[in-house]
TrEMBL record:
Cellular component annotations (GO), alphabetically ordered: plasma membrane
The protein's name in its UniProt record: FUSC family protein
Organism (species): Bradyrhizobium cajani
Keyword Transmembrane helix: yes
Pfam families in the cross-refs: FUSC
Amino acid sequence: MPGSTTNTADGSRAVVFAGFPVSSWVFALRVWLAMLLALYVSFWLELESPSSAALTVAVLALPTRGQGMEKAGYRLFATALGVAASIAIAGMFSQTGGLLLAVFGIWIGLCVYVAGMLDGNRAYAAALCCITVALIAIEQIDSPLQVFPTGVARGAAIGIGVLAVALVNEVLAAPDYHPVLASRLEALHRRVTEFAQAALRGEASSTTSAADMLRDIAALHPEIASLTTESSIGAARTAAARSAMVDLVGELSLARALAAVPAASATAGHDAEDGGSSLMTICRAQLRSEIMRRNADVRDSLAALRAGTHPLRQWRASLYRSRRIAAEGAVRAAIHFTLIAIIFVMAGWPTTELCLALAAVIIGLSATAPDPRAFTKLAVLAMPIACLLAGILKYLVFNGVSEFQLLAIGLAPVVIGTALLISLPSRALSPLGRLTLVFTLAVLAPSNPQSYDPEVFLVTCLFAQLSSVLVFAAQLLLPSLSGDRRIRLLLDEARRELSHPRARHLAPEEAAFREAARIEQILTANGGTTASPQVIVEAMRCFDQAVVLRRCCAELDRLAEGPLAAAAHEARAALARRDGRAILAAAEALRRTAAQAHAAADPVLAALVPAGIAFAPSQTPAQG
């Protein structure tokens, strides 16, 4: 049947036509119209590089308005920075021969390092600085005087593409992203609430389930920034979503702590003589109260996200990134480019600037992917498909014509078809569709008038495919960091930070989210392969210990003066030794002192007891 309905993830029914939801067809139509508008304006203004405008539309082909505008802003900024770098590099090293290629390699490594320290569209912007230098300076390596006009032309074309996307999205009412993000956060809230309720009932805690939730929460970090560009109240929605994420991690960590605290304790015998509750009973009661309060904070933040208002409490969602992993990736990227450049210098082939530039583009884009080699494999697969589609369009569909109307009709099947692939949730088909669309436009290079020289086209296709194959060969010769290697580095850094905590300026809740971001990187280091139970247990052990240490330090700071100062000092000394038994003993001493002084110490005890359990020699997290 050409049309039918199907159930979506949220239970609603979506109309499906030819196997794709109507929303995907509308998205593909928007991409096609924006591309035609960008090309028409570029032809009308007689820009030197109209294909850059079309490529900009392909890159900004995102299903919602906020996502597209955020990426557009980073694309404009990175292009300006890349053009400036191209002018500087070409001006200082244009007559230095091999040194110029070495400088290009260093620049690529620097951009890849910055991309490795960021995420989302910020990482894309860092990679684009590398790509811009490749498309401007490297392609003009033999004519450095053309770097500036080429950079200006590229910047103008990109500006046209951005405006075309913005106009089409506005006229055709591209959907907002905040309803989708709110639904995902609400689903995560339900999962965390169920986990917390199980802890409140005294049921065993599942380490695997907790790690999966932390991964899913932290994975939303790069998507939240797009809400800022969505509307005039986007900044408020961004703050609300960010606070909801941080509070979700906080609620989950509190539930983990509660599940680890036993319901009964050997100290219960002191109840009669002290006239109060045992240490464990106080801790469990306080943790229950904190979990319910944190749950209410999440609900308030989600309501603020829906309403577009600022949350009552705003948190920073700090991102964790490993400098070691970023540096190793940068060095490998620089070596990959240098090896490819050496091959071309030794071969002595003419007109290889395009191949070298495309190799730098693939290296830069692969730096933003979780697995660079898997991305390059997709590029190797997409490049011949793109060359075939470009050849069909140029010599079978257009076949010498120059009318814009025929260009629009001819581009429709390719653009709409690849845009439909982009809209799919598949982790393989969606990036394949985007790469195919981008490479097809790069090889086709729409211009006015259109060039139909078969020799130029064949050389372009040859070098385009050669570039992806050479990058893949370089990555085989010097492999990128494996998933297991990244996991080992991340776990080693987590252990070291337990002795020497970093990011001391962060609140305990913000530091907990930072630890959750590390969990997300550990669990996704091997792509779609699930991490081993041993890795999950060790990662969550480090997470639990880091979180309780932050909470203890924050609570003990509040007791630095007053009748409990001495007991708090002893507790801090026990924490410094990472001795679980000493921490519990210090907590009991603090409880007695607080009872005698009629002072409130329940929040401190609720932090110290989980710390004592987390650092107990026999402590092993529950597995699920």
